[in-house]
Amino acid sequence: MTAGTPTARTVLGDLAPDQLGVTNAHDHLFFASRRLPGQELDDTDAAVRELRAFARLGGRTVVQWSPFGLGRHPEALAEVSRSADVHVIAATGLHQAAHYPPELLARVRDRLAELFVAELTTGMHRADDPDGPTVPARAGLVKVAGGFHGLDAHARHALTAAAEAHHATGTPIAVHLEGGTAALDVLDLLCDRLDVPPHRVILGHLTRFPDPRVPRAAAEAGAFLALDGPSRAHHATDWRLFDVLTALVEAGHATQVLLGGDTTTAAARSVTGEGPGMPFLLTALRPRIERELGPEIATAIFEASPARAFATAWTAT
């Protein structure tokens, strides 16, 4: 296998990483979980309008972290991206077991790495059916999840499959940290035991755990940190964002920081609910970062860091 020129894989094709522009590094256009009945993100028109609201403020790319089996609507993502003129990076992968019907987990458990690689290189499965047809749109990252203050058997199995997919394709691995915990357990497994380079790992939700030593240690290890911005589902932790962000910048880790809105329900959208939705990243957070930390830090977080985090030197025969 040989490595090619680094590119970012969007649902409409591959781009040079510097074409991603201003990036919302962690969000959801479509999402559904059995843990959130009645709160599905499944409205294509609303997804387009939310993306357009983000684009009007200068937003160019949204990274959707909805993995396999959670209503990510791969058949609609290309249409939404094209209609809004916003790049969309989609995810394959697997969330925590509680989000899935047991019968679906049983169907994919023994072929996770194969499933991930196929969705990264060939196309994502329509309607999240592992045995059904695929769409041409390909995933550009693998999203998996840790457990609360540790890694259970399901998490270890999914993380191991993600590592296999990374070694086969070079793709970055994005990790949901439950309550912001177990970040160092994730890095121990992926990087120390499974040989994934730390800069290919993106850790999410670190502002949800108040110990400042954890994000600093994760950054020192070399991982990217995807901090939540206006996440309505976890708004009680929003006040920590600037404390964590400032500490990381002052420690020299600005080029490893990413920001995302993590919109998981229609009520959190700017166009269908009470917001603040995707636009808040650029109407409120970016101006504040520019005022408090400087314009160059804002550019690093919203443009330079995503270009590095989501670039892949895709392997080819």
TrEMBL record:
Binding site for Zn(2+) 2: 143, 176, 205
Transmembrane segments: none
PROSITE patterns per record: PHOSPHOTRIESTERASE_2 (PS51347)
Keyword Protein biosynthesis belongs to the record: no
N6-carboxylysine modified-residue sites: 143
Cofactor entry: a divalent metal cation
Protein name: Phosphotriesterase-related protein
Keywords, in A-Z order: Hydrolase, Metal-binding
Cofactor binding, note field: Binds 2 divalent metal cations per subunit.
